[in-house]
Design goal:
The chain has 15 helices and 12 strands. The protein has 362 residues and is α+β, with helices and mostly antiparallel strands. 36% of the residues are buried.
């Protein structure tokens, strides 16, 4: 039986992503393997992973290769034994293993020749996979190796699913927080689906609506085309920048600006579903934005938020320096950090992005 501390650490990793590489090392060791990885994949094939440090650079290369889509083992695993760890020799014939491009082009050149894993499929179709690798010269995984990992299977499954469900709570928490400061908002997942939306955003229907398959759409065709292009970037795994979409006014309705803000995740947080936050602001409702909003929305420090607020008010770098008592060089340094966090590159872009955010009290 595995030490109780390993089970405890598995559940701790459910809420602390930094724990997963160490868990991978211990899983590999418990099965006499070389390395382990945890992989998530959505319906569009977006591939995210975390692994033992010893194979991290190789996994980075694999994750960018078309080979990642050539793996026949997950589908066969779900067909044959969806509730236990299986070896490659359980899901593939010897001839298939000999001819498999993942083995020939990726594993064998690294001296690795045997695999064992488990696959968990959520109701949404999202896959969570555990994969253990072993060096070629050590031969296939033995029954005892499989038994040791199967003893941990219930805990691994519960921890992975708990982490996945917490990601939805994270999405709801984001929209509720933005609602508290008056921001109509929605959170999009990597597949482009709306994970959560607050009541303030829903009040813009039918101009902005959530339709079939939880997809967000805009009634204005040109604006909707821009939105769908951004959604396609999310689906492809591209890292979007902060973008704005103008939405024309309607009868008794003001024009809107949609701000699409990417969620910058820790690379180890593979279970997070939140890919972007969409914030809608009516044109004309402008003013010096609330420092709390700037800090929470863009992860700005209080000092950065104050500089950003001055830029939104139309102040120059020189005037901000004079007003705050900082040097021009220090203000420019702050501004570079603000540009990085907001995905902008010019003061005019930053001012446009911040326009319409709820005003603070002077």
């Amino acid at each position: 039986m595995e030490p109780t501390s390993l089970v405890d650490d598995i559940y701790e990793a459910a809420v602390i992503p930094e724990k997963w590489p160490a868990i991978c090392d211990r899983l590999a060791a418990s099965a006499n393997g070389f390395s382990a990885s945890v992989v998530t994949m959505n319906e569009q094939g977006l591939f995210r992973w975390i692994s033992s440090d010893c194979i991290r650079s190789d996994m980075e290369r694999f994750s960018e290769s078309p080979l990642r889509m050539a793996n026949i083992r997950p589908a066969r695993h779900l067909e044959r034994a969806p509730f236990s760890f299986l070896r490659d020799t359980d899901t593939m014939t010897a001839d298939e293993i000999d001819a498999d491009p993942i083995y020939n082009e990726f594993l064998r050149p690294l001296g690795l020749g045997w695999t064992m894993g488990d696959v968990i499929q959520e109701p949404s179709g999202h896959l969570i996979m555990f994969d253990i690798l072993r060096r070629t010269d050590r031969g296939p995984f033995a029954d005892a190796d499989v038994d040791r990992l199967n003893a941990l299977k219930p805990d691994l499954s519960r921890a992975a699913l708990l982490t996945s469900r917490l990601s939805f709570q994270q999405a709801r928490g984001i929209t509720q927080t933005l609602s508290a400061v008056g921001l109509p908002a929605a959170v999009l997942g990597g597949s482009g689906k709306v994970l959560a939306a607050n009541g303030e955003l829903e009040q813009f229907a039918p101009r902005i609506s959530i339709g079939a398959r939880d997809q967000l759409s805009i009634s204005q065709p040109s604006a909707n085309a821009l939105l769908q292009a951004i959604v396609q970037d999310l689906q492809s795994g591209a890292q979007p920048t902060v973008q704005t979409i103008p939405v024309a006014g309607a009868v008794e309705s003001k024009p809107l600006i949609l701000h699409i803000i990417p969620v910058r995740r820790d690379a180890r947080d593979i279970f997070s579903r939140c890919a972007a936050i969409i914030v809608a602001t009516p044109v004309g409702e402008v003013g010096p934005p609330d420092v709390r909003v700037l800090c929470g929305l863009f992860d700005l420090t209080p000092g950065e938020a104050r500089i950003a607020r001055e830029i939104a008010m139309g102040e120059s770098v020189e005037k901000i320096a004079l007003k705050t008592g900082l040097s021009v060089h220090t203000v420019r340094t702050y501004l570079k950090l603000i540009f990085s966090k907001t995905g902008t590159s010019r003061q005019s872009q930053l001012a446009a992005l911040l326009s319409g955010l709820p005003a603070g009290r002077d």
